[in-house]
Amino acid sequence: MPLIRSISGLRGTIGDSLGPDIIVRYVAAFAQMVTHSGGTVVVGHDGRPSGGWIEDVVVGTLRSCGVNARTIGMAPTPTVQLATEHSDASGGISISASHNPSEWNGLKFLNHEGIFLDGDECAQLFGLVDAGERTLADWAGGGSRLDAGDEIEKHCERALALPFVRLPELRARRFTVVVDAVNASGSEIVPMMLERCGCQVVRLFCAGSGLFPHTPEPLPENLTALADAVRSSGADIGIAVDPDADRLVLIDERGVPFGEEYTITQAADFVLRFERARDAARNLRAVVNLSTTRAVEDVAARYAAQVLRTPVGEINVARAMKQSGAVIGGEGSGGVILPELHYGRDSIAGIMILLHNLLERGGTMSALRAALPAYEIAKRKAALLPGTAPEEMLARIEKARGGEAVAVRTDDGLKLDYERAWVHLRASNTEPIIRVIAEAHTRDEAARLADDFLGMIEHPS
Questions:
Q1: pLDDT-based confidence at 429, cuts 50/70/90?
Q2: What proportion of the chain, given as a percentage, has pLDDT over 90?
Q3: C-alpha angle 177/179/203, rounded to 5°?
Q4: Would 4-149 and 155-251 be classified into the same CATH topology?
Q5: Architecture field, domain 4-149
Q6: FRET partner for 11 with CA separation of 20 to 30 A, picked from 224, 271, 368, 369?
Q7: Do the Cβ atoms of 341 and 164 come closer than 8 Å?
Q8: What is the average pLDDT score of the chain?
Q9: How far does the chain reach from its first CA to its final CA, in angstroms?
């Protein structure tokens, strides 16, 4: 498989495209870009078997460049982000390939604010890599390996200090929750956070071994064991996180998927309602990407809030949130960004919001879902024909079909908005494919729309 680099960082397959030589090149360039002699970079990994030796290479490279490495061991990417933000660190590196299978791993690069590098910063980093730039310390100037302390504990403490938290009432409610952390970095923090909120936790795949019990992307077809465990245990909630625990996907009390798009929808509904109650006159804003459900606009309208949309990519959402002063944001893949905690997708933030949303409404997960706007999303993907550039294909489709839409955006692939539906086509940041995402009011309508455009990619005339 090819080495993939994007605003989501660097990803490749172990023993193939991602080896020690590649890691050294990228980490040395990052050290030159964001640090100086005596600087510090926070390093954590998501638990994959390859994470241990990659951490050794990352730490050794940083030290050879005169940079201290503050290691936090196996930890979610959002924990690495918080540890970077709330310290004197010059940046951070989370060793993770997110939802990709076990044979993959990668590097997610963070700036001193604890957020991912943006497009310009990535271009600078990749330029240094391609030029072979690196600055090594002399014999007496190497960096040190530092112990960061218990950053997972600090993450939990910050989440419990959020302004909407009502811990005594939450503990009295005693939700029963089944957790599938795919034996990765969420194995400790997710059950710990839930137990501190008074929940009875059923640990399904929380061994922390890094050995995935199923395909790690938290899609319904990969969460059948979680759904079965929710039903058999009589649980209120099923929770799944991906290997680096930045995405949160939910199962209701019947064992039915809540819908990954509705993780951010319910979060927006709760946070906007909470903030509107605090200030009736405030200009409230939420930010989501172009591929996220229209349900976010619908719930925002309940609280006279504005929704801004960005190209796909956590950093694009985070930057727009900072610039606009948004109170909530995220992506339809199960990512929630709560600036009261930090500007990164964080399953812990999403869990805290969900628990309080259920506490406030007093009902079940299925009742909460029924109270949200109803849309259906169809997702497809296709490989381009050899020799076909994504830009050429999307330009051809825009010319053929753009006139049918009420709005067209081309700042991230091609987004066509219709009165009752939309379709978004874009080259993936993390896989060598074209993604086709369509949304409509019914599953059949969404599927027909997605398949229509998929056919234009797979069988161009």
A1: low
A2: 87
A3: 95
A4: yes
A5: 3-Layer(aba) Sandwich (3.40)
A6: 224
A7: no
A8: 94
A9: 29
